[in-house]
TrEMBL record, chain C:
Protein name as it appears in the record: Nitrite/sulfite reductase
Nitrite/Sulfite reductase ferredoxin-like domain boundaries: 52-110, 348-398
Organism: PS1 clade bacterium
A GO term, aspect molecular function: sulfite reductase (ferredoxin) activity
Keyword annotations from UniProtKB, A to Z: 4Fe-4S, Iron, Iron-sulfur, Metal-binding, Oxidoreductase
Amino acid sequence: MAQHSSKGARFQAVTANRLKDGEVVYFKGNGWIENFAEAEIADGQEAAEALLTRASPDNMEAFILDPYLFEVSESDNGFTPVSVRENIRAKGPTVRTDLGKQAEAG
Amino acid sequence: MPTKTHLIANGAVVDDTWVFIDDETPLGDTPAIISLDRLKAEADTLRSRNAKLGVVIRTNTQGKTKLGEDVRELSPYLDMLTTIAIDFPVYRNGRGYSDARILREELGFKGELRAIGEVLFDQWSFMARCGFNTFEIDSSIPVKAFNEALNELSEAYQPAVDNQRGVLWRRHGL
Amino acid sequence: MYRYDEFDHKIVTDRVNQFRGQVNRRISGALSEDAFKPLRLMNGVYLQLHAYMLRVAIPYGTVSSKQMRMLAHIARKYDRGYGHFTTRQNIQYNWPALDRIPDLLEELASVEMHAIQTSGNCIRNVTADQYAGAIADEIEDPRIISEIIRQWSTFHPEFSYLPRKFKIAVTGHENDRAAIKLHDIGIVIVKNDKGETGYEVHVGGGQGRSPFIAKKLTDFVPAKKLLAYLEAVMRVYNMLGRRDNSYKARIKILVHETGETEMRRLVEEEFAKIDASQMLSLPEAELDRISAYFAPPNYENLPAQSDAFEAAKEGNPEFSHWVKTNLVPHKTPGYGIVNISLKPIGGIPGDATDAQMDVIADLAERYALDEIRVTHEQNLVLPHVKLDEAKEVYDILCAHDLATPNIGLISDSIACPGLDYCNLANARSIPLAQEISTHFADLDKQYDIGELKIKISGCINACGHHHVGHIGILGVDKKGTEFYQISLGGSADEKASLGDITGQAFTEDKVVDAVDTIVETYLNLRQPEERFLDTYRRVGMDPFKEQLYAD
Ligand code: HEM
Ligand code: SF4
């Protein structure tokens, strides 16, 4: 599996899968949401670490699997994940655009 | 590995009278479980000792040259041993299942075969089928749960060390 | 086909209940993810990119129409209306919710199916020749011994926590369609000088990061002793296989590091002990009982030539093309073996919708003596179709986009799920298969190119068999972008070989061009009757390399 963030990454967000159904989720505030567009973005490594810590409390395992940081970049219409992998997680299979989050959004 | 364990034998929690003794500590006259190396080195003196003796077989996860200790090395000493403990360093390392069957089936060991280390819920019944008869498990697990787990899978296709004959044979009254 | 007796039912039902308990304990928090993961894996449940994935076993690739209807029902009720048939003769569902999987498994059990040992470091689903029982010149139906191995290996108490996963494949025919030399154990059914049937055992093949062709450890083991022999191989592996590095834990590495001769000696020594104990000596009566389930079905007495079939070919060139690529001669006069391509041009290799599965189930029931097979090349087979009715079958397949006449051709590629679904992937696989298939859509061109097997994996685990593709494509990751390495000259049949890497990897947009260049180079160099693989074996890598990296 690839690294999720490059060394000098500036912007990062936290993602995981939900225990019950495996759904891709993102951390925001003090909870988890399904839509990447609403994910909380950390600016800088320190903020990122803090975000990950907030997203991983002791009882987290009861409903969320393996939260991790991944790199995002800023563009005109907001943030997008940097890697192909995280783009696919955020949207759904590229070969079935009728499925996954991309289908629900559109 | 669980921090606190209790020992299960014959479906009940039992007092564990055995003590694991490291290689430097002198043996007293209570039941003692020692390492394979010590057993080999001190076999002659140990033979004349007057208390029960056990040995622990360690499985290694590091390096290919150190797969773990070879249970077949026990064969000259089996008559001296009341207990053999087999260590599961992590539940994923299943070498101990073969160790147990070799001891029971090939070497004919009849004494206590004890599973130690990461000995988890979903491995107990496989361990029992391979010839383990005592289990060091997390002491927070009630013995009732242990006994239920052993019976979750009521039939087995293949023969092993327990007295289930294996469905492939039982279908024909064998 | 094999049918469960009360023992088989009990074993599968107990397992469903056990897994229900495990899922409940996980969801209630009593079980940690660390402890739960191996349990869910042993029941075929993975966590993928978007959701859980469930892998359902199709032992030796055989299903009945009733079972196929259940697979369709599950796609509808628990998934998103489709399933993915895999190179290991399994079916994978990409979207089931964890808390509903116990119900799903209970429904599967009602048609004698399960997900047991479709993952985890145990003995996996046994695979076999998809033409078993239907092809001429078979020594014995490989499904008989496969079913025996399935039972013996199910919940084997000693071999459920092996150093790594373990895959067994069986063929009963000299043409190997089960890729037995690329399995941990490959079994070839043979006859000895005395005319007795037995088993030749190959050990230590595999793909993944370090591919190996299996070594033949023995020429002949009689049926009665086969389980003892397999148990001996397994015990040697469980005792001596490496556990320090998961990439070196497969039996192929043990065989390689120990050497073939020493490995054979170790196995023979263990085998002698197990054999002497008689414990695993297979009862004759059990062999007979299981064989009876695979007795030939009731074929009709038909002439070898079907007038209706011949006339249909005359009148319909498309049908006649399809016959040429997708219909294989049957051992019984008047019958044919129908291959159903799951590789429509531009489609996703191996995917089938619930509606398609239902159609195939109906076809099997009406026209194919109620049997369906899954092939390791991700297609399906109706093994016993009357030639008289082949055109009717074809017409129905056509109506459901299931009649692409491309078996064995360039558009019949294998592809793993890749980065579109898989958590371990470096790169996508499916889009490449789609682009290549679209690029070579023209059937005349495909026929001209002839047999050419493209196999695509999204990472070094090689689920898409890229090492043994005539053209193999492997996804690699460079800083979050997808690159693809190409290899040539691999083969998975009885003359198995591993492909050679052409050189530097290609970016995604250059892969189709590269494949095109390889194909053109072959077309220029080939001699009459030469397949791609033959030409490659004759001329070697250089001419291809020259063209590929010309500028
Ligand atoms: C989508 C989830 C999948 C995951 C996580 C996965 C994981 C893996 C891993 C880790 C290996 C390497 C094992 C090793 O070398 O020790 C492997 C090999 C393999 N897998 Fe998969 N796989 C997946 C899907 C598939 C699919 C869809 C197929 C069939 C199309 C498949 C068939 C195989 C085969 C044939 C091999 C290589 C042969 C071998 O070395 O045994 N897998 N898989
Ligand atoms: S080859 Fe790699 S990417 Fe493809 S399915 Fe296997 S593990 Fe996933």
